[in-house]
Specification:
With about 270 residues, the chain is α/β, with parallel strands linked by helices. It contains 6 helices and 9 strands.
């Protein structure tokens, strides 16, 4: 039997076709937050959007909408590493940390967007900082994250993976390619990958985005993702973050996020 070499492992891009489940879910999500963009365009001739951890490819879900409002929308993409964009009239790129409390001025944007990023930013303190930025940077916001209680873990593509002990998950990644991740050659590297992803549930999202409309995205009759959207509080109400308010291990709540060794993930993978 031929062994698959980790460095040669590549998973097919789930967004290369509009017919994949991932692409259809993203299209459904745009239908949810599109009214917020339309409301912003009613108020102003031109609007500014910031997408924390976003890419140009992601916005293909809104291609027709963006074309219809060409010249009236500007999207700023914020990522830890520099990225290239083809449409420089529409997109502006910024290399920065989406958890940085000094990232942009308060209310610098009309709409703050993030898709499948908050679970990658690090420990609970980093997650709170990220959420605080979402709320202070713009009048309206939309945040999506995979649901901790959905039985298929979306990054590693393995049933109940997130519910297994950390040691078991780490061991599995040293043995096999899992989802978007190649097999790691040593325990330390595998542990780094496992620590870099912390799934959230609806109760945690309600705590992070108090006052927002928090709802589920459903797939096969089960809540696949958690969405938080709405109008943000005024920035003056968001200057102080309580880092001691970490959720407890209570029934129905995802386990308390461990104080991981990394304030930022070593890797970022696209998910549905």
């Amino acid at each position: 039997m031929t062994e698959v070499v980790a460095s040669q492992y590549q998973r097919a891009d789930p967004y290369s076709s509009t017919k994949t489940i991932e692409s259809r879910l993203r299209a459904r999500r745009f239908a949810i937050f599109r009214p917020m963009l339309e409301a912003a365009l009613q108020e102003k001739e031109t609007i500014e959007i910031v997408d924390l951890g976003g890419t140009e490819t992601y916005w293909n879900i809104a291609r027709e909408f963006l074309q219809a409002h060409k010249g009236r929308i500007r999207i700023t993409l914020v990522n830890l590493e520099p990225i290239e964009v083809a449409d420089r009239d529409l997109f502006h790129t910024v290399t920065g940390d989406a958890c940085d409390p000094y990232l942009f001025k308060d209310n610098a944007f009309d709409f703050v967007h993030s898709n499948s990023v908050i679970e990658h930013v690090g420990d609970w303190e980093c997650i709170e900082k990220f959420a605080n930025n979402v709320l202070r940077l713009g009048k309206r916001h939309y945040v999506q994250t995979p649901n901790y209680w959905f039985p298929l873990e979306p990054h590693f593509r393995f049933p109940a993976f997130q519910w297994l002990p950390v040691s078991v998950r780490t061991w599995m990644l040293t043995r096999w390619n899992l989802g978007f991740f190649s097999r790691e050659a040593d325990w330390s590297s595998a542990s780094e990958v496992i620590d870099s992803i912390n799934l959230l549930n609806s109760r945690q999202m309600e705590q992070l985005f108090a006052g927002s409309d928090v709802r589920h995205e459903w797939l096969l009759g089960m809540p696949k993702s958690v969405l938080a959207m709405g109008e943000s509080y005024k920035a003056t109400h968001l200057t102080t973050i309580r880092h001691d308010r970490q959720p407890a291990n209570t029934p129905g709540l995802a386990p308390t996020l461990s104080d991981t060794r990394h304030s930022q993930p070593a890797r970022k993978s696209s998910t549905a």
